[in-house]
């Protein structure tokens, strides 16, 4: 899945394990449409790399010794024109992954995800489509729906949306791309993007992943 009609997707890799960084760098640099522009061993090293290289995507570990991936993601996402963040994690960090998504991460994957899937995730998130690993999604949703009052709060929040915006939000929660939503709802991609912008503004959210979590909270998926 190459990036069409544009320069390669610039990626920064953040992980305290040098072997993981090397493996990811080798894999991504060998993929069409992606170039690795920097590596960091801790969350507190990310912002200087972002300043220097303006990456489109940051692959972010969660557990790091000085600044964890949640705090680093939050710092990145409040910057002007921030990069997208994809969290790389393991099964035992469900709660932390959920916190990272709410901090603004555009998706998450397990570290044992097959290389083609990681490449696809980088390209899709750079294009504005969230990536949620199916193997972890079910467990996260179980946590979300178990939270006291989450269902009612989510349903109340979604009432600010128009019927069409509501349809787009639900489609996003199903993991549909802009092109797929346009086909399903019989509208142009530009119209889908406009609706998505309105959804984010009305819900005071940063990205599609947060919208998807809210729709899941509401029990609509």
TrEMBL record:
* Name of the protein: DNA-binding response regulator
Check the record and name the PANTHER family matching this protein: TRANSCRIPTIONAL REGULATORY PROTEIN NARL-RELATED (PTHR43214:SF24), TWO-COMPONENT RESPONSE REGULATOR (PTHR43214)
Its keywords, alphabetically, are: DNA-binding, Phosphoprotein, Transcription, Transcription regulation
4-aspartylphosphate PTM positions read 61
Domain HTH luxR-type: start-end pairs: 154-219
Q: Where is the Response regulatory domain?
A: 10-126
Decide whether keyword DNA-binding is in the record: yes
A GO term for molecular function:
DNA binding
Query: Domain of life here?
Result: Bacteria
Which organism encodes this protein? Pseudonocardia hydrocarbonoxydans
Supply one GO BP term.
phosphorelay signal transduction system
Question: Pfam families, alphabetically?
Answer: GerE, Response_reg
Q: Does the keyword Lyase apply?
A: no
Q: Which PROSITE patterns match?
A: HTH_LUXR_1, HTH_LUXR_2, RESPONSE_REGULATORY
């Amino acid at each position: 899945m190459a990036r069409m009609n544009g320069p390669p997707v610039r990626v920064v890799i953040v992980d305290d394990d040098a072997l993981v960084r090397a493996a990811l760098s080798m894999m991504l640099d060998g993929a069409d449409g992606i170039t690795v522009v920097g590596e960091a061993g801790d969350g507190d090293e990310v912002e200087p790399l972002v300043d220097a290289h303006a990456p489109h995507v940051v692959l972010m570990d969660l557990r790091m010794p000085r600044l964890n991936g949640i705090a680093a993601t939050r710092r990145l996402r409040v910057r002007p024109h921030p990069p997208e963040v994809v969290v790389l994690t393991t099964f035992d960090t469900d709660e932390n992954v959920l916190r990272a998504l709410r901090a603004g991460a555009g998706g998450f994957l397990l570290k044992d995800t097959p290389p083609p899937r990681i490449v696809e995730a980088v390209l899709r998130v750079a294009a504005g489509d969230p990536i949620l690993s199916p193997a972890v999604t079910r467990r996260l949703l179980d946590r979300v729906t178990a939270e006291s009052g989450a269902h009612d709060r989510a349903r109340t929040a979604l009432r600010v949306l128009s019927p069409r915006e509501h349809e787009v939000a639900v489609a996003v929660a199903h993991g549909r791309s802009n092109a797929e939503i346009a086909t399903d709802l019989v509208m142009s991609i530009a119209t889908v993007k406009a609706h998505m912008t309105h959804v984010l503004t009305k819900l005071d959210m940063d990205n599609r992943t947060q919208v998807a979590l809210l729709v899941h909270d509401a029990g609509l998926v």
